[in-house]
Amino acid sequence: MNEKLKKKSAKMTKKDGYKNIPSVDELMSMKQSGILIEKFGRKLVLYAARELQSIMRSNANTNTKDISSSINSLEEIVNKYVLKDKTIINGTGVIIHTNLGRVPLSSESIKSINSVNSSYTDLEFNINTGKRGERHKLLNAYLNILTGSEASYAVNNNASAIMLAIKDIVGKGEILISRGELVEIGGGFRIPEVIQASGAKLIEVGTTNKTYIRDYENAITKKTKAILKVHSSNFSLKGFTSMPTKKEISLLAKKHNIISIEDLGSGLLIDTKKMNLPNEPTIQDSIKSGIDIVTFSGDKLLGGPQAGIIIGREKLIHKISKNPMARAQRLDKSALSALTTTLKHYIEDEHLIKIPVWQMINMREKEIKKRVDAIIEEIPNNVRRVKGTSKIGGGTMPEAELPTWLLSIKIPNINTEELLKNLRDLPKPIIGRINDNNALIDIRTIPVEFDKYIIQSLNKLNKKYK
């Protein structure tokens, strides 16, 4: 059969297959569909029926009309769109896990979200005067206390923060950046693309591994409005390298009456040297160095909700806050309340015991081993303790490795991928990782209240594949 006849035959087969596809009305009239409608509502089941029919049309190759076999597929599609408990148990050992929502909030931050959403609140109301109040007043005060900045503003993420700052300060002018800092951030977005979207013109200086202060100075023209420094938080550059200090960049910007901006990314407020972690620049370092504008994330090492925070000189922050895009990107009352509460933990020096990201980073190896041993004691077979490392994650401290103890699971008659799939299919999914064909669960990133659930789940799996 030549190619044309093959195509014609396939087309005819598919056309004949269309006749065997149940109509949406037929799918909806099935008894089992009625049960789904009672449970989930007609609108959702109808949406799923249309999707099922579309799938069947794209795979039209059946010769018989089998309506009854469609119900399982329909139920699977309906279940895709059912709102479920979003609790996921992170057993990967990656503390700031972007795919799993970065980090949990402190219990007080969660209470603050509930509080501002269960009643009216003084979001933009001054209780004392009875007049309109400032939305960011408390947040601004806390950030000034903690960082030494003059003023601050918060938007919905750090990409928005840096774009807003550049758009307002640089406009259509030029902004200088080292070629060694043209990084890619989360979701495939790249700094050059962010700058382009802001409307500014990017001027690259230096080389990938070596950039000197003279490279910046030689590139300054009448059109230059700012120098941008980007912290390489998600990679490290070693060896034959050189970069100007923040102080040098700040002084150069002041000398030429332009603005210095830094995207610090991770939002670190505390000295981590005592935790045996790699040196990571703090927000305070940037302000002390004289950088005019600093941006950073609220949901990485800061340990708060998703937010992009802009701090720095009051005159510049005031101008940025009046930009129409600032209104479009501002934090809602939930994120604002959670972020302010997170900062309160730092103000009261209780961040290491109340903010989950620091609880996990600061968790002692001995404590993890004790929990792992207690779990194994309750599971008779196929689980053992192994030594490993946890990661900070979230594009932060890429070289940091935290010593930990892991649950290593290997059940006969089931391969590792299938085992991990079983764990993901639990009512509260447990997300693990693979190493040397063993399924691993890192207890560091799991709250202690889930230990009993892990024991029950692994015992059930052992019984299932006995």
What this model shows, in words?
The protein folds into 3 domains: 3-77, no CATH class; 89-96 and 359-464, Aspartate Aminotransferase, domain 1 (Alpha-Beta Complex); 107-351, 3-Layer(aba) Sandwich (Aspartate Aminotransferase, domain 2), CATH 3.40.640. Helices cover 44% and strands 16% of the residues. The strands form 3 sheets. It has a 7-stranded mixed sheet, with helices on both faces. Helix 9 (191-198) links the parallel strand 4 (174-178) and strand 5. Helix 3 packs parallel to helix 5 and helix 7 packs parallel to helix 15 (333-347). It has helices spanning 3-19, 24-29, 31-40, 42-58, 70-80, 107-118, 137-147, 158-170, 191-198, 213-219, 246-255, 283-288, 314-321, 324-329, 333-347, 351-354, 356-361, 365-377, 416-424, 451-464, and strands at residues 89-90, 94-96, 151-155, 174-178, 201-205, 224-230, 259-265, 293-297, 308-312, 383-393, 402-409, 430-431, 433-435, 438-442. With 466 residues, it is of the alpha/beta class.
Number of strands: 14
Q: Helical residue percent?
A: 40-55%
What is the overall number of helices?
Answer: 20
Strand order of the largest sheet: 3-9-8-7-6-4-5
CATH class call of the largest domain? Alpha Beta
Average of pLDDT:
89
Secondary-structure content class: alpha/beta
- Calculate Rg over CA atoms: 28 Å
Low-confidence stretches: 4-13
Tell me which CATH architecture of the largest domain applies here: 3-Layer(aba) Sandwich
Major beta sheet summary: 7 strands, mixed
- Shape, per Cα inertia axes: globular
Q: Report how far the terminal alpha carbons are from each other.
A: 52 Å
Tally of discrete structural domains: 3
Q: CATH homologous superfamily name of the largest domain?
A: Type I PLP-dependent aspartate aminotransferase-like (Major domain)
